[in-house]
Amino acid sequence: MEGDGFPKQRHILHSSYSNSLMRKWNSTNTNIDSTHLMYPIFLQEDDNGSTEIKSMPGVRRYGINKLIEDLKPLVTKGLKSVLLFGVIDSLPKDQTGTHADSPENPVMRAVPLLRKEFPDLVIACDVCLCPYTDHGHCGILDKVGLLKNKESIRRIAQIALAYASAGCHIVAPSDMMDGRIGAIKELLVTAGLGSRVAVLSYAAKFSSSFYGPFRDAAKSAPAFGDRKAYQLPPASAGLAARAAARDVEEGCDMLMVKPGLAYLDIIHQTKLAHPEYPLFAYQVSGEYAMLYHAAKAGCLELKSALRETLTSFRRAGADCIISYYTPQVLEWIEAGSWNE
Questions:
Q1: What pLDDT score was predicted for residue 24?
Q2: Which of 101, 110, 216, 327 has the smallest number of Cβ neighbours within 10 A?
Q3: 202 touches 173 (CB < 8 A)
Q4: Strand 60-62 versus strand 50-52 pairing type
Q5: Closest C-alpha to 85, from 226, 259, 217
Q6: Which tens digits make up the pLDDT trace of 53-100?
Q7: What Rg do the C-alpha atoms of the chain give, in angstroms?
Q8: What is the DSSP string of 290-325?
Q9: Exposed, middle or buried by CB within 10 Å (0-12, 13-18, 19+), for 246?
Q10: Would the pLDDT of 221 be above 90?
Q11: Which residues are catalytic?
Q12: What is the dihedral of CA 179, 180, 181, 185, to 10 degrees?
């Protein structure tokens, strides 16, 4: 038989996945339900406003009242967690990001209301200075524009404590300053919140070209220079491993890799190194826009491509995926068409 072009019996694979149940048996645990999704949300100052973000069609900045209205059907569909980003317009920006944690900050005002309206919803707050500083960088700068790490992590920790005190369940520092996890944990413990508020570390956050639409959405583009001195070089798996190990050593509760699709190897590497820690993958704004525009141009079918992409995150080791497509995926899951 082999000489007639037939494979050896042990090389016959089609029989292993000839029907849907067998295909599931031969697949790793890559299922996607509401527990595997976190919805990133931009909050603006106008409580009743809602502004579409041009570079991210279908994604909006929400005022608090509009957000609560639009979240209700998503929570009914199974939404379990959100990641909040504040965006300010009328509030002034300054060198130290005063309004990152002021009472007027939209995140500070939204968290207690969300806790009251959706008591089972897990609320994470992004912690960074860039949307609130006049220079648009993620830390405190000296007179010549260089980062002052000690002052930066002190300020980042203050903001994290403010969000935790407002009632969030998770603080997620995205600044990539050295030592910020330890500084945050120390303040949380001192305030009696160390056992109640988790720290999700943006451990392996790369200096990426896929952040463009986000900077438009959050109005957080740097006024000068770039962030290559503190975000990771795209080619460095070694620095990603060291960053994750550092943040684990300092006491983080969860780890993140950002972006997702171009860094599947880093997701896998991080999960192998730290299997006992929940791992998040962030499907960032550029990834969202890439899929959106490709689908709109007829280059691919959105649901199929999105399912394949999210599955790749899960296969690589992600336990939760932060995605702007979360509302759409929840609709497909509820309708029973997600896995068709």
A1: 72
A2: 216
A3: yes
A4: antiparallel
A5: 217
A6: 989 999 999 999 999 999 999 999 999 999 999 999 899 898 899 999
A7: 21
A8: HHHHHHHTTSS-HHHHHHHHHHHHHHHT-SEEEETT
A9: middle
A10: no
A11: 205, 258
A12: 110
Torsion of CA 246, 260, 217, 213, to 10 degrees: 120
Q: What's the predicted TM-score (pTM) here?
A: 0.91
From CA 319, how far away is CA 270, in angstroms rounded? 12
The answer to whether 141 and 135 have CB atoms below 8 angstroms apart is yes
Strand intervals (E) in 187-315? 198-205, 254-258, 279-283
- For residue 201, the one-letter residue type is S
Cis bond leading into 259, ω under 30°? Answer: yes
Residues with Cβ within 8 Å of residue 298, at least 6 apart in sequence: none
- Per DSSP bridges, beta strands 81-86 and 122-127 are parallel
Find out whether 18 and 59 touch, Cβ atoms under 8 Å: no
Q: How far apart are CA 173 and CA 187, in angstroms?
A: 14
Per-residue pLDDT band for 2 (boundaries 50, 70, 90) equals very low
Task: Enumerate the β-bridge partners of residue 199.
Answer: 171
Could you identify the residue written with the tokens 């460095």?
Answer: 236
Report which of 247, 106, 108, 85 is spatially closest to residue 164, judged by C-alpha positions.
Answer: 108
Q: Is 252 helix (H, G, I), strand (E, B) or coil?
A: coil
Residue 96 in tokens? 């130290």
* Residue 265 host element (H or E): helix 264-273
Can you tell me which residue has the tokens 């770039």? Answer: 226
Helix, strand, coil shares of the chain as percentages rounded to 5? 45, 15, 40
Q: Residue by residue, what is the 3-state secondary structure of 95-158?
A: CCCHHHCCCCCHHHHHHHHHHHHCCCCEEEEEECCCCCECCCCCCCECCCCCECHHHHHHHHHH
Which tens digit of pLDDT belongs to each residue from 102-127?
999 999 999 999 999 999 999 999 99
Sign, CA torsion 245/250/255/256: negative
Return the amino acid letter for 43. L
**8 Å CB contact between 254 and 305:** no
Query: How far is residue 60's CA from residue 305's CA, in Å, rounded to a whole number?
Result: 23
Position 171, amino acid: V
